[in-house]
Design goal:
about 290 residues, alpha/beta, six-stranded parallel β-sheet
């Protein structure tokens, strides 16, 4: 299958490089064309519009900022749907409200185009080697048709059912990221305030059932104030907005998600361009 990627930021670039290395024909588009340079050097065709991507692809992945951006590249001027052809499949790897995803799926289907939501867990450093975890929502037969491509992108692929289901789980997963980063940051802050070396706190934490990938890896970068972004604080704050919007739409109350959103919102102005773990710096400056 010919593959297209629309949105070649940190994640899209890494996914694309992995697919090129595995021998796929790849066409890419990004609003800021300079972000396609590395992919072009490695053999990707750079398109001038989302329409051109879909015209030259069997499966197109959108990896953009939010639902509005998904809708714009999907149905706006020179859009993905404008390049419709027999057999075209569109997959959205962005993090968006599952209700919005259902609406987008319905619009594609009304135009005779198959659509799956395919959000992933794992950053660019994982994507570059095809090690992401992918969640898929959509028609089962479409999923089966795309499974080989999904397996090249992700080491684990979960089919979850109807459109919107994958984005629901993705939001639940990103809520874990936000909470773990806060808990870890507050633990480090408390240890420092107690004149305890935070590395001792981490060593003890990582000797217990409560250790996480974050506490075993990113936490040590946090202690060194290394916040080179793999997933920015601003993007996590955006996802917390979406989590709270989805919770309201589903009629549930998530008090910790609400409070976390307020904290990340306060931190965004100064630390938004850094990795999400820079929430530690915000807490440090607040004390």
């Amino acid at each position: 299958m010919r593959v297209g990627i629309i949105g070649t930021g940190l994640l899209g670039n890494a996914v694309g490089l992995n697919l090129l290395r595995k021998g796929h024909n790849l066409t890419v588009y990004n609003r800021t064309k300079s972000k396609t340079k590395e992919l072009e050097k490695n053999g990707a065709i750079v398109a001038n519009s989302p329409k051109m991507v879909s015209e030259n692809s069997d499966i197109v992945f959108s990896i953009v900022k939010n639902a509005d951006a998904v809708k714009k590249v999907s149905f706006g001027d020179e859009c993905i749907a404008c390049g419709k052809h027999d057999g075209l499949i569109v997959c959205d790897m962005s993090t968006i409200n599952p209700i919005e995803s259902k609406h987008i799926a319905a619009e594609f289907q009304s135009r005779g185009i198959s659509f799956c939501d395919t959000p992933v867990m794992g950053g660019p450093n994982v994507a570059i080697n095809g090690g992401l975890v992918m969640m898929v929502g959509g028609n089962k037969s479409v999923f089966e048709k795309c499974k080989n491509i999904f397996d090249d992108i992700a080491s684990k692929v979960f089919y979850l059912g109807n459109n919107g289901s994958a984005h629901s789980v993705k939001l639940a997963m990103n809520l874990q990221i936000a909470m773990l980063a806060l808990a870890l940051s507050e633990g480090i802050t408390l240890a420092r305030a107690s004149n305890i070396n935070p590395e001792i706190f981490l060593e003890i934490l990582n000797s217990t059932y409560f250790k996480t990938g974050m506490s075993e890896s990113k936490a040590y970068k946090m202690l060194k104030q290394d916040y080179a972004p793999t997933f920015t604080l601003a993007n996590l704050k955006k996802d917390l907005d979406t989590i709270n919007e989805a919770a309201k739409a589903f009629g549930v109350i998530l008090p910790m998600a609400t409070r976390a959103n307020q904290i990340y919102q306060d931190a965004e102005e100064k630390f938004g361009a850094l990795d999400y773990t820079a929430i530690l710096e915000y807490l440090s400056e607040s004390n």
